[in-house]
Amino acid sequence: MKKLVFYFLTASTLFSACVADDDDLPTPQKGIVVTTNKPEPLDDITYRLSGTITGTDLNSVSTRGFIVSTYPNAPELPSPIAGDTTRTVYIFAKSNYNFSLNQTFHLGVKYYVRAYANLKGETHYGEEYIVAPGAAPANCNVVNVTGGISAPTTWTAGNVYLVKGSLPITSTLTIEPGVVVKLQGNDVNGSFDIRNGGRVIANGTPANRIVFTSIYDDSFCGDSNGDGAATSPNKGDWNDIEMDGGNNNSFTYCDFFYGGSYNGYVVYVGISSTSFTFDHCRFAHTKNSASDYAAFHGGGYMIDAGESQLTNCVFYDNDRPLYCNSYYTVDASNSFHNPSDPSQTNKHNGIFMWHASNPAGATVSYNVTEVPYVMTSQFTGGGSAATGTINFAPGAIMKFLSPGLGIARAAGRTVNMGAGAILTSYKDDAHGGDTNGDGTASTPATGDWDGFWDYVSSKYISGPYILYAAH
Q1: Exposed / middle / buried, residue 419 (Cβ in 10 Å: 0-12, 13-18, 19+)
Q2: Region 112-125: what's the mean pLDDT?
Q3: Is 152's pLDDT higher than 70?
C-alpha cells in the first residue's frame, strides 16, 4: 500500500493526515450533506437563498428548506412556533435537492440563514450565513440642520442630517440616495414643513434608500446623538412630513420610521400640495392615534390618483395605514403587511375613506383586496342627481364605520359589484379581518350600517353581498 502524507501548518500546531490508495478506501456510508450557498442580493432588501443536498440517501429525506432567524443557530422545527417572530422556517417539496427562495428582509436587521434537511428523524444543517440588508456605515458624518430651507439645497450621501424641531421648506431640497435623516421633537416639532414655494425631491434607489427615522435609531448611521445604548427608538419620536404648500414633491425608495408624534400621521397632505409621488416607500412604527388620522393622511384632498401618486408602498406596524377621499383609486401595488413577517400588519388594517366631495362623472375603482375599505361618511354621491361610476373588484370589501352610513346608486351613478365583493359592518371580522382592532370585544349585528339605497326604484337593494345593514 502506498500512502501520501499531507501536512497542515497553523500558527501554533502541526497536523498530518494520510490518504490511502483507491483500493484501500472504505465504502461510502449512506447519508446526506446539506450545503447553504452564499445568499445573493437582488436589491437592498431581497436576497436569493439557495441550498443543495447531496449524498447516497436522498430518497429518505423527508423535508428540507431554510431557517431564517434573528438569532444564530436557531433550532429547526416542522413549522414556525406560534407567535415566534424571530425565526421562520421554509419547507420545500421532497423532490427538491437543489432549492431556492427569493426572500425579502427588513432593512437594518441582522439575519442568520442556513439550509437544513431531515433524514430519518435527524436534522442536518448547512453553513450559516449572515444577511444584513441595507446596513449603513457604522457611523456617518453628522450634520445639524438649523433654520430652514430658503434656497436650493442638496443633502449628500454619507451624511446623517439631524433635524430638531420644525424645518420650514420654502425652496427646493434635494436629498441624494443613501442619505439618512434623523428627527427629534413632539407635537408640531420634529417635522418637514413644506410651504408655498417649497419642494422636496427625495429619490432613492433600491440599493440606496433614503431613511427618515428617529434621532434615537442607531441602526442607521450609528449612534448619531452620542448617548451609547442609553436610548432606543419609539413610536412618535418625531412628527411628520407636512405638505402644506408647494407641489410636485417626490419621494421614491424612502423609509419613514417612528414618526407621528402629534396626531398619528407621518405624511400629511394639505389642500395646496396634492401633486406628489410616493413610490416604493415604507411606512412603519408610526404612533397610534386616538383620532381618525392615518400614517399616510391624504384626507379629502387626496382624490385624483393621477395627481396624487401612491404606488408600490408598504404599510405595517401603524395604527391606520391610509386615509383618503372616497373617489381616490388606491393602486393595488400597495401592501399592508411587513414583507419580512406577513403576520405583522396594522392595528386598524384597512383603507379609510372620507366622502368629502363628489366629482361629477368621476370613476373610482376599489381594486385592493388585501385589506378592506372603510367608509367613514355617507357615500351617496350627491343624492338622486349623482353621476359617476363605482367599481368593486372581485373580492373587494367595504365596511361602514357606523349606523346611518351607506351607499347609493342613481340614474347617473352606477355601482358595479365584482364577484365576491362584500358590503358589511366595521365590526365584521369574518370578512377582511379585525379592522376595528378590538379582537373579539365587538361582534357585528343588523343595523350596524344603513344599507344600499337605489334612487331609481326608491328602495333598498338586497342581496347576499350585503351584510348587517339596517335595510
Answers
A1: exposed
A2: 86
A3: yes
325 and 302 in contact (C-beta within 8 Å)?
yes
Highest averaged pLDDT of the listed ranges 52-61, 95-104, 216-225, 320-329: 320-329
Q: Could you write out the three-class secondary structure of the chain?
A: CCEEEEEEECCCCEEEEEEECHHHCCCCCCCEEEEECCCEECCCCEEEEEEEEEECCHHHEEEEEEEEECCCCCCCCCCCCCCCCCEEEEEECCCCCEEEEEEECCCCCCEEEEEEEEECCEEEEEEEEEECCCCCCCCCEEEEECCCECCCEEECCCEEEEEECEEEECCEEEECCCCEEEEECCCCCCEEEECCCCEEEEECCCCCCEEEEECCCCCCCCCCCCCCCCCCCCCCCCCCEEECCCCCEEEECEEEECCCCCCCCCEEECCCCCCEEEECCEEECCCCCCCCCCCEEEECCCCCCCCEEEECCEEECCCCCEEEECCCCCCCCCECCECCECCCCCCCCCEEEECCCCCCCCEEEECCCCCCEEECCCECCCHHHCEEEEEECCCCEEEECCCCCEEEEECEEEEEECCCCEEEECCCCCCCCCCCCCCCCCCCCCCCECEEEECCCCEEECCCCECCECC
Tell me the pLDDT tens digit for each residue of 262-282.
889 999 999 889 999 999 999
Average pLDDT over residues 271-299: 92
Mean pLDDT over 72-84 rounds to 48
pLDDT of residue 265: 94
Query: Taking a C-beta distance cutoff of 8 angstroms, is the pair 195, 245 a contact?
Result: yes
Q: Hey, what amino acid is at 116?
A: Y
For the record, the C-alpha cell of 205 comes out as 434607489
The dihedral formed by the CA atoms of 150, 187, 220 and 243, expressed in degrees to the nearest 10: -40
pLDDT higher than 60, residue 101: yes
Q: Is the pLDDT of residue 92 over 90?
A: no
Q: Could you give the CA distance from residue 125 to residue 122 in angstroms, rounded to a whole number?
A: 10
Is the model's pLDDT at 340 over the cut of 90? no
Which set of grid coordinates corresponds to residue 33? 450533506
